[in-house]
Amino acid sequence: MFKKILVANRGEIACRVIRTAREMGISTVAVYSDADAGSLAVRMADEAIHIGPPAASESYLVVDKILAAIRETGAEAVHPGYGFLSENADFARALEKEGVAFIGPPPDAIAAMGDKIESKKLADAAGVSTVPGHMDTIADVDEAMTIAREIGYPVMIKASAGGGGKGMRIAYGDDEVDEGFRSAQNEARSSFGDDRIFIEKFVQEPRHIEIQVLADAHSNVIYLGERECSIQRRHQKVVEEAPSPFLDEATRKAMGEQACALAAAVDYRSAGTVEFIVDKDRNFYFLEMNTRLQVEHPVTEMITGLDLVEQMIRVADGEKLSLSQEDVTLNGWAIETRVYAEDPSRNFLPAIGRLVRYRTPAEDGKTVRIDTGVGEGSEISMFYDPMIAKLATHGADRAEAIVRMQDALDAYYIRGTGHNTAFLASILAHPRFAEGALTTNFIAEEYPDGYAPEPPEGELRDRFAAVAAYVHGRFADRTRQSGRAGQPALPDQAVSWRVVNAGETTVVRVTYRPDGAEVEVDGRPVAFKADWVLGDPVLTVQFANSTATFQVDRQGVGYHVTHRGIEAAIRVLSARGAELNDKMPEKVPPDLSRFVLSPMPGLLVSLAVEEGADVRAGEEIAVVEAMKMENVLRATADGVVKALHAAPGDSLAVDQAIVEFE
């Protein structure tokens, strides 16, 4: 067995590999850029080697720097994680020349499956069902339009070397082919250094279901069930689960056998994933093969009991698989959500910054698991993917796994940068998700105007009011004990508060007890037991028929309360305070309708207008690139350009003015 492994990656996946290697008694080497000098992966590894500036193109993607780190440390093998060099055949070949093992498939298998055009041809030859389309490189927009018409709209425009949602566009007509072809090429060139594009039929009402395969160098290939990855945004996965709520055993077996046939056809060795698009009638079509560990591998590990990183290491060391297809069993249900530093209310724009407060839910690795590469004080950089963590839960069945995920999201406390936990909780609480009625269009269909937190209603509204009033009374008592007269005494004294939520006022009467409180909301009793430490932003309350966790942040003279993806800005006032509050004038926000603002920190790639130009609503104004994804900014109304406040090539801050209209 290897004695030392270098992890050619960063963040949570580097930590994940280091953890398994440590359990196997293998020492580890981390590599890091300037931006990651103080990272968790660097602290976890036995050794750490600096490899360059923050930009991945100058550090994590530079093969010579990785090779130099290998030589310096004497590492015998390299685990590439995912992304970066994980599917770079030239990197795998360079390791072979150095006599260093690549913990992944052979270079030829990487090359064959890394080219989406060639991989589809190989899949077809191996008897794998493929999506109808044009499998050769397309020269220009005119040819793309001709091919799209022949295939029939809608079509998917895809980069041959693409992955992770980059270089992909759906087109429903010629105009969208024109724009989509250009954007897909630009993204592919920026992300992969390869701007070849192909087109295939877009399957409507599609599900994205993938098969995990595992193969060794002794002709053994098995599949470990499937993962449902249909909850996506811009072709990037948001929620994954295993198994799929849609597949029956016959379809699972057919997909698994085809996945294994493809792996065998390219002499695959290691863990890999064969992705399929599945229509409403359970017809399935090969999409691509990822020749690496997948981001969502934890759900497979949770239902199979296997450590895929360990399996990859053992296969790379020449060992045979320790199990056969008959040994594979799927136990219970697992769900994973991707916790990102982004702002769901602003079209999911990346939100960089420092994690000022970071507290994860309790985990045991079996029912709740957190894969992360950050901690309190960590910086979410503009240079890399904005993932904070992967949160996974397991249950005896799907319903139990969902509830555990909801509870974990409620307890996941992140401050200092925007994040998507409330949006994830909203998805998990959606009736359609509970039914398992999923497609890759789920987010677009259920959140057509983007995500906006819902206010509490009915019984939940009473609970929000009770929580805010209880917390406020505890803070008020601390103030009273500090010597300020006129505040309510606790415990055992009933206090009436006026709770203002979304313009409506509720009377909440609270009698404080050592184990919680007796609460009435507009005369309705609310059972309320809590063991809460003053100042803790996470509050768990036992109500009459359930236990619920809330996050409560003091904001000025009010409180921001969240639970299950529902949010409320609440003010708790005395009777006199409520009277005065009604007389307060409303602050009018500044008019920014005449400006096009950068919605995120990024690079201004292009401007499509000039001063004095007439612009119509919907026309392209500018393209901003962030996290290697292009974002097209459009005019929201007709107008005339008064001034340009930025130029192509400029680095933009969030809300920085780009164009001003008259």
List keywords for this structure.
662 residues, alpha+beta, Rossmann fold, D-amino Acid Aminotransferase, Chain A, domain 1, Dna Ligase, domain 1, 8-stranded antiparallel beta sheet, 8-stranded antiparallel β-barrel, 39 strands
- Under CATH at level 1, the class of the largest domain stands as Alpha Beta
**Head-to-tail CA distance between termini:** 70 Å
Question: What structural class do the secondary elements suggest?
Answer: alpha+beta
Estimate what percentage of residues fall within beta strands.
Answer: 25-35%
Query: Widest sheet: strand order?
Result: 14-13-10-11-12-15-22-20
CATH architecture of the largest domain: 2-Layer Sandwich
CATH superfamily annotation of the largest domain: ATP-grasp fold, B domain
CATH third-tier fold name of the largest domain: D-amino Acid Aminotransferase, Chain A, domain 1
Can you walk through the features of this model?
With 662 residues, this protein is of the alpha+beta class. It has six domains: 100 residues, Rossmann fold; 133 residues, ATP-grasp fold, B domain (D-amino Acid Aminotransferase, Chain A, domain 1, 2-Layer Sandwich), CATH 3.30.470; 70 residues, Dna Ligase, domain 1; 92 residues, D-amino Acid Aminotransferase, Chain A, domain 1; 124 residues, Glycoprotein, Type 4 Pilin; 67 residues, Beta Barrel (OB fold (Dihydrolipoamide Acetyltransferase, E2P)), CATH 2.40.50.100. The protein is 28% helix and 33% strand. The chain is built from 17 helices and 39 strands. The strands form nine sheets. It has an eight-stranded antiparallel beta sheet, sandwiched between helices. α2 links the parallel β2 and β3. α4 runs antiparallel to α5 and α12 runs antiparallel to α13. The longest helix is centred in the C-terminal third of the chain and has 24 residues. The mean pLDDT is 92.
